[in-house]
Amino acid sequence: MGSKLYTTEHRIRFSECDPAGIVFYPQYFVLFNDLMEQWIDSLIPEGFSGLIAHKKVGMPTVHLEADFRSISQMGDDVVLSIGVKHIGSRSLQLRLQCVGKDGVLRMEVQQVIVTTSLVTHQAIEVPEFLREPMQQYLLPAEEALAN
């Protein structure tokens, strides 16, 4: 087991902002969805597209909590991260964060994802080919319990 985060750097773009020049809040969810796809790309050779198209495994969100802590403005450099709070039999609990290069937490999401068959559209066990590489991103217990 590990406790590293999957991270990527991102510069806030004009297209992600409202007329006041700050990130329009739904854009964070687009950024985090893109981050999730990149993460899966890094975990399995088939990548996210292969997970969907060939392995027929879906990963829909069934619960989402968001806390907006500080604004992000056009041109800000931020780090987006994913940590795994828990891997259950059929679901994952994730923590996603957007942190400014200044170290200030901008936004945090607690997300529950269920693994599903795209053939039957029913929940399935988290496949071992996902479970195993995801374990390196398990957060330490004290971080996993913190909201």
In short, what is this structure?
This protein has 147 residues and is an alpha+beta fold.
Tell me about this structure.
25% of the residues lie in helices and 33% in strands. The chain has one domain: Thiol Ester Dehydrase, Chain A, CATH 3.10.129.10. A five-stranded antiparallel β-sheet has the order 1-4-5-6-3. A two-stranded antiparallel ribbon has the order 2-7. It is α+β, with helices and mostly antiparallel strands and 147 residues long. The longest helix has 18 residues, at 26-43. The protein has helices spanning 26-43, 47-53, 128-134, 141-145, and strands spanning 6-11, 57-58, 61-68, 77-87, 91-100, 105-114, 116-117. The protein has four helices and seven strands, in the order βααββββββαα.
Chain oligomer state: single chain
What is the count of DSSP helices, taking H or I runs of 4+ residues?
Answer: 4
How many domains? The number is 1
The average pLDDT is 95
List the helices and strands and how they pair.
Elements: E1 6-11, H1 26-43, H2 47-53, E2 57-58, E3 61-68, E4 77-87, E5 91-100, E6 105-114, E7 116-117, H3 128-134, H4 141-145
Antiparallel strand pairs: 1-4, 2-7, 3-6, 4-5, 5-6
